[in-house]
Amino acid sequence: MRIRAIIVSVLALTLVSCGDDDGLTSTTTNGGATSTSAGSSSTTDGVTTIAGPGGQSDWTRIPHDDAVFGVRDPSWMWAVIYGVAAAGPGVVAVGDRFPSIDYSDRPGVWTSPDGVAWAVVPHDEAVFGGMMSGYVEAVAAGPLGLVAVGTEYQGDDYDAVVFTSADGRTWSRVPDPGGVFGGLGWQGMHAVTAGGPSWVAVGYDDSGEDRNAAVWTSPDGVTWARVPHDESLFGGVNDQEIYGVVAAGPGLVAVGNDDEAPAAWVSADGLTWEKVPTDRFSSDPDYENVDKVMRAVAATPGLGLVAVGYLEWYSEATDTEDADAAVWVSEDGLSWVLISEDAAMFGGPDDQKMAAVTAGGPGFVAVGWDRSGGDANAAVWDSPDGTNWTRVPDDVIFTGAGDQEMYGVAAGATWVVAVGRDGVNATVWVSPPPG
Which of 246, 238, 230 is nearest to 190 (CA)? Predict the structure, then answer.
């Protein structure tokens, strides 16, 4: 929730001052993007691209369309996209839209056949309304369709929320007569994947004295159960939270944080889980007194698993924080190695954070942001093997007035799509650019 709190506060201050129609299978085959070693730029028909070696263009920011991405649509003031998947008509993205009527969040869904031409799913009050505030954080595709997960606020506290769709264009909200998504305090879902009994979602439960990790499962996307809380598994001293999950390793691998340490959980079936022991995480001794957070995880056959996030230092002397992007690798989800010690590649002044990673492009692509220039600029790293990483050079498509941040990334057979925001507008970047 830290990232979301930053987003909401920044935007509030700003306001005051590849498939067919029935294709539901996510593809993560390699192709499309290549790492860039040269960073010249060009602009044609309003589309600016980064030019890589040999004149190949790697990334393009999709031109802003008020009717699709905000901010001057008459019914809503700003929008943010948090998650994206290769699904539905080609690509499905989820996030939130901020209506001008009551100044509270509403879930938002966008679709595209190719990552270039986008449409916003019209707001359906019967599906996306009925809540004081709500947003969708992640979407995934499986044999039974699509599932999107997030959080809603009904006036007393936050509860998890789930939506389903057969095609990415028409959605239904999953009822919760048994209160599986809620309870005392706050509950929310950060990520979902096809796996286990059919679907597995992960997040947090704030019903006790502190925050605990939480897992939900479903055989069909409609009927959900909460994996029973085990304090030794999902709890502990201070906060535990799961941010990402993928079908890999022994069956499923989830990542997050345990107090100030990185954390991973594994399961063969989504129903019974084990927590990876802390001594299975290796890193340089200089990182022992640092807040380490795993924000997302991806996997591909032959290359294993990659988790991304950040390392954050806090100085009591200056009352300041500084964060560097972080990458962990694992062959099986049971042992992890931090490999992002290169300060020039992953660090810099102020904050650099990775928020999402996907298997695709040259091997893996991670996205996030870099605040070394004061405002946040979108940031992309790619790797052919999960171990050796290249930062795509900053250029005009990643920068601009105010903040540009990437929160999600997905890969198709021939493209990689990153999503996030540019100031108060939902924003999409694609690699390679069209044409």
Answer: 246
